[in-house]
Amino acid sequence: MNAILITFLLIRLGVTVGYWKLFEKAGIAGWKSVIPFYSEYILMYELLGKPKLWFIYLLIPVVNVFAYYVIIFEVLRCFGRPSLWSQILIIFTGFFYLIWLGFDSKVKYLGKLNDLPEIKKSPLAEWSEAIAFAVVAATLIRFLIMEAYTIPTPSMENSLLVGDFLFVSKFHYGSRTPKTPLQLPLTHQKIWFTNIPSYLDWIQLPQTRLPGITTIKSGDVVVFNIPPKQLNEGKDYPVDIKTNYIKRCVAAAGETLTVKDAQVYVNDKPLANHPLTQWAYHVKASALINERNLEKLKLGPEDYNVIGRPDENTVEYIMWITPEKENEIKGLPYIKSIEREKQDQAYGLFPFSEYYGFGSGFKNNLNWTLDNFGPLWIPAKGATIPINDSTLALYGFTIVNYDHNIHAEIKDKKLFIDGSEVTEYTFKQNYYFMMGDNRHNSLDSRYWGFVPEDHVVGKAFFIWLSIDSNASLLHKIRWNRFFKMIE
């Protein structure tokens, strides 16, 4: 929090210096720039001559961001810098450009907006400015309100389908302030259609989260940046540049998770399964199931795999389906048997530490499996735990890698922070445990552990488009999923 406060004060100091010099050029006392909000009041009425209603816009969350950029663009016009390039500079350099304008002896105050001559612009200039404003608006909306996301894998089937396009709400949990400011607008890791990075990590800002309207709860569908380096192309991306994943939160900070026979329990109470939750089933058919029958069953290529043919009258499948679909399939004449699989896999599962390892080839000594997992307490901000072999096995990797400790390491089965041994530890942020609704076909927290709060992007809100890439041209769009709220 101290770093965030210092950053805010430095930004405000820079803005104040820029305002002071600009005010003096406009014949306004420079000291009026020192007082926050009052300085914006003076800027709008004495320097720009805008209606008083505009000050109200600065007090309305989200609206104030757009209003401020409009005001700053008009300040540029009053000082003879109305060009598109000046607007781009003020967006990406902020108060540095204001300070430069203030100290540049060639920059003069031309008068209030109503006193300025009308600027005649070419069609190219008008289109360029319109596009620039649209990019700025879209970037701000993406940062503050909503961000588009596409479902790339079947880990959330059938709750969310491959090819679903959805909006992720930033305002539910509160927007994160940018950590990597040097990034092309409306990009993530790479420039569109290339492998060229879209960002520079030269500047890394401290992150905070703006106030939201709710907190993450068990059962929420959440989009987040996947923590492990292994799942980020092996690269050390900054937090806000890491690959986006979408899963269901099954246990929030401070809760205890247990999975018994594939049923999730939170604080010893069963968590209601979503009606479309899927598991793996071993299916034996008398022959290959033709595509027409698979379409009738609404099974796409991501819902099944042929795993063998033990004899000429038997074809074996692995299918990821709901219990309801199981009942539908078992009565079909060409189905010999269908049985839900037990997932006894214990290799490559969380926890991973110097005691258990990570990835294939390591077996955790707790005998946890995909279907029988925990009990596991989820770390909460401000909670303190003793440091011993047991807690280090479960939380050591998280403490060292994700809890904002610059010099933390586990050595000789002991935790050291800044060179000193620690016998108890207090967590600095909340954590969450995420699982896919396709329980036996999901790379989720059972494999890689907790999701830190600073990795959370937002709450999956609603589907605005859904395309079935496996369907024929006339049936590619899933019309029944348009504007469907995500539960």
Count of folded domains? 3
Question: Which overall shape is indicated by the principal axes computed on the Cα atoms?
Answer: globular
In the CATH scheme, the class of the largest domain would be Mainly Beta
Find the structural class using helix and strand composition: alpha+beta
In the CATH hierarchy, the architecture of the largest domain is: Ribbon
Proportion of residues in extended strands: 15-25%
Distance between the termini: 34 Å
Percentage of residues assigned to helices:
25-40%
Query: What summary fits the major beta sheet?
Result: 8 strands, antiparallel
Identify low-pLDDT runs.
Answer: 354-362
CATH homologous superfamily descriptor of the largest domain: Umud Fragment, subunit A
Would you tell me the overall average pLDDT?
88
Blueprint of the fold:
Blueprint: H1 2-25, H2 38-48, H3 53-57, H4 63-78, H5 84-93, H6 95-103, H7 123-144, E1 146-150, E2 164-169, E3 221-225, E4 244-251, E5 256-260, E6 263-266, E7 269-270, E8 279-285, H8 291-296, E9 304-311, E10 314-321, H9 323-330, E11 335-340, E12 373-377, E13 384-386, H10 389-402, E14 408-411, E15 414-417, E16 420-422, E17 424-426, E18 431-435, H11 445-448, E19 451-452, E20 456-466, E21 484-485
Antiparallel strand pairs: 1-2, 2-20, 3-4, 3-20, 4-18, 5-6, 5-12, 6-7, 8-10, 8-11, 9-10, 13-17, 14-15, 15-16, 18-19, 20-21
